[in-house]
Specification:
The protein has 83 residues and is an alpha+beta fold. Helix content is 42%, strand content 23%.
C-alpha cells in the first residue's frame, strides 16, 4: 500500500516543485497541493497533466484517486499571504 510520503517523493522525483503536501490515509485516495514553476503559463488541466506525467504508470497501478490543487509560486505566495 502506498503512503502519502511515498507519493510526495514520486511527485518531486518527476517534477521540480517548490512545495508539495500530500494527505491520504487509506493508501489509494490522496489529496495533494503542488507548487511548481513548471505551471507558469499553463491552465489547470495542463498543470494536472504535468503531475500525471511525473507519476507515470503509478496513476494506473498504485493510485486509485488523486485530488490535487496546483499553483504557480506567485499564486501560492498570494494565497499564503491571505490576499
Amino acid at each position: 500500500m502506498l503512503s502519502a510520503e511515498e507519493l510526495k517523493t514520486y511527485i518531486t522525483q518527476g517534477l521540480a516543485c517548490d512545495h508539495v503536501q500530500v494527505l491520504g490515509d487509506d493508501g489509494q485516495h490522496f489529496e495533494a497541493v503542488i507548487v511548481s514553476t513548471h505551471f507558469v503559463g499553463k491552465n489547470m488541466v495542463q498543470q494536472h497533466q504535468l503531475v500525471y506525467q511525473a507519476l507515470g504508470d503509478r496513476m494506473r497501478e498504485e493510485i486509485h484517486a488523486l485530488s490535487m490543487r496546483t499553483f504557480t509560486p506567485d499564486a501560492w505566495a498570494k494565497l499564503s499571504s491571505g490576499l
